[in-house]
Amino acid sequence: MKLTRGWGWAVPAVAAIAGILFAASAFTADGTDLRSTTTDPATLVAERANEVADLNADKATLAHDVADLRAQVEDIGVEQAVDETQRLQGPAGMDPVSGPGVVVTLDDAPQARLDEAGVDPNLLVVHQQDIQAFVNALWAAGAKAISLQGQRLISTTGIKCVGNTVVLEGVPYSPPYRIEAVGDIGMMHASLAGSQSVQIYEEYVNAYDLGLSVEDSTGLDIPAYNVTPQLEWAKPLD
Pseudo-torsion of CA 88, 92, 93, 97, nearest 10°? Predict the structure, then answer.
């Protein structure tokens, strides 16, 4: 009777231990045999041959991809691509520019006007559209290069008004705002005079004493654009 009871608890215990061992073995093997039972040399050689064949196939595919990429580079022409890149650096604003031009300075109304009662303070400060009006007029005149507060402006530059400051490439600037443009002085004066947006700003200059001066310069030095351009919506031409 005692022997029967002993086997009664021993059998489940042995089964449980065996289950744990099987689980540990499966976990360690990670789905593969812990030790290969294949000892036939011919079978082992065949398996290795298949693995080598698969690797050679991958190698051939990669070699084909490399050949395609090399052909594309050769079609473009490395020297031609380098020459084209260097040629476009200037028009893209990546080279410094020096020469004669004009300097435009915009400023808020004096403090005395800002302290006057009954006057909308928004009428007494320079806004981003005012700066853009002068910059666009200078571009329209064929300016070779333009800078604002010493920073080069290019086609992707955004001028943003935040409070009573202007943010350019993430850097805030306070007035006065100095715009320098290298180009034909006569054409730039004519373009400023013919710009309707510039004329509107001049009306506010007369009415609210906003600051404005346009001066000629025989020698301006405008630096190269030193920020990586961010082209979020641009698409290459076919």
Answer: 40
Instruction: Specify if 80 maps to a domain.
Output: no
Q: What is the pTM of this model?
A: 0.62
- Taking CA atoms, 94 is separated from 64, 152, 177, 190, in Å, by 37, 9, 23, 28
Angle (nearest 5°) at CA 164 between 158 and 165: 40
Whether 105 and 187 share a structural domain: yes
Q: Which tokens in the block code for residue 59?
A: 């190698």
Residues 121 and 192 in one domain: yes
Over the stretch 89-131, which tens digit does the pLDDT of each residue have? 666 667 889 999 999 999 999 888 777 777 888 888 899 999 9
* Residue found under tokens 């435009």: 104
Q: Name, in order, each residue with C-beta under 8 angstroms of 137's C-beta and a sequence gap of 6 or more.
A: 188, 191, 192, 194, 195, 197, 198
**Tokens matching residue 38:** 């294949």
Are residues 169 and 207 in contact, defined by beta-carbon separation less than 8 angstroms?
A: no
CB atoms within 10 A of CB 145: 26
What is the count of structural domains for the chain? 2
* Residue 116 Rama label (left phi>0; alpha psi -120 to 50; beta): beta
